[in-house]
Amino acid sequence: MNWTLNLLLLMFLLTTAAVAISLRDLLAAAIVFSAYSLMMAILWTQLRAPDLALTEAAVGAGVTTVLFVITIFKTTRRED
Amino acid sequence: MRRVAVIGVLLIIGAMLFYAIGKMPPMNSRNTPDKTHVVPRYLEKGEEEGGARNIITGVILNYRGYDTMGEVTVIFSALCAVVALLDREKRGLSRSGPDASGVRSSIIVRTVVRFAFPVILFFAVAYMMLHGEASPGGGFQGGAILGASVIVFTLAFGLPESTRRMPLKVRTPLESTAMIGFLSMGFIGIAYGVNFLTYLLPGVHGTIAQTIRNLMITVIELGIGIGGGIIFISIVFAMMREDKFELRPDIPQP
Amino acid sequence: MNFGRIFHNLNYAVSALLFLIGLYTVAVKPNLIKKLIGLNIMETSVFLFIVSVGMVDEGVAPIVTGGYKAAEAVGRVVNPIPQALILTGIVVAVSTTAVALSLCLKIYERYGILNATEILGREEP
Q1: What residue segments make up the domains of chain C, in order of their start?
Q2: For the CA atoms of B207, B208, B210, B212, what is the dihedral angle to 10 degrees?
Q3: Chain A: nearest CA to C30, how far in angstroms?
Q4: Residue C102 and residue B239: Cβ atoms within 8 Å?
């Protein structure tokens, strides 16, 4: 297993998660959450799980992000 | 005060988790019991018992078929819950019409989506769902990509255009194909006198049995794929409808 | 707490950290959408943990191309069972997110805000 790539992906994962929960603009938080989903999909590929990578990529970027953005557009965009 | 208490609880949970992680065998080790006993058995017999060359498809449709039926039930109930919460048309509270903003996407987006949409659809149905038993793929992956492609189409062309091409009377029978696929294949087993959702019927042997099993698995995969995709599309359509609700007068305006 | 072991099990450690980040978000942040983002982070961290248990160094994905013999499959192929279980888990995660977001829409319709402490009428933490 490629330790460098694995370490980089895990650091990116922690960074995007920490950023996604601390942004005050909810739309930006949803987009950073989509980047978190992308990092998770690449990590599934690294862990030799192609079915999970396909499902996470399609569901994380295609459905969950769209649902979050639709909800944020219909409700408030700022956190407070 | 509450924040300090939460951080204290998190530190306790974190200490317990890290202590347990320190005691686990290292990752990528080859002589843990799951890799010496479980993995060889499922890899050796997975193809002939499971019925698919992709062992994960064999596991989720044959060894753990009830779990997949439960998953289909969960996603179908999610659709029912979303439509029950958000479908305002029956109660006469919605005034849905054309898009609220009225802004069309740029021509680059529309042209690219017009080219890419049939390719993605073909990839989802032909490669993922139908070839999913011999390559990475499977029923639900194809369904998720199908749903995502129609969502991309809706984002590029607007909701009225998309609803015109896939109206409610087309979506409603297709949403239940997943459950119908499972139940029909399951009751075939009961009709022959053996268990529910079994692929080895008592009267047939040899290559006919393999053909029947592959056919039943393909029917279930297509059902899960198409049903799951249409369910995602319906959920997004139900949430995206631009009807303007009015807040009650005693609630502060946002 | 053996620190060398934790570095060798880096996937597990990161999954535990992500779980704690998600739990902090659900417990502390007052906005409902933030709580849902934290819930999703918690769910995906557990998926990462379970699939990392089945990982084999320099393994291949469990798709049969040439037939496997049991003796040589031990060190070469990744465990397929956790992947099959987590596939169902991903679907359940997206379903609960969809229902929770439609509940958020209804709450906004009724209350006008999406702030949990103000809706429940409590004071600030």
Answers
A1: 3-54+76-120
A2: 170
A3: 9
A4: yes
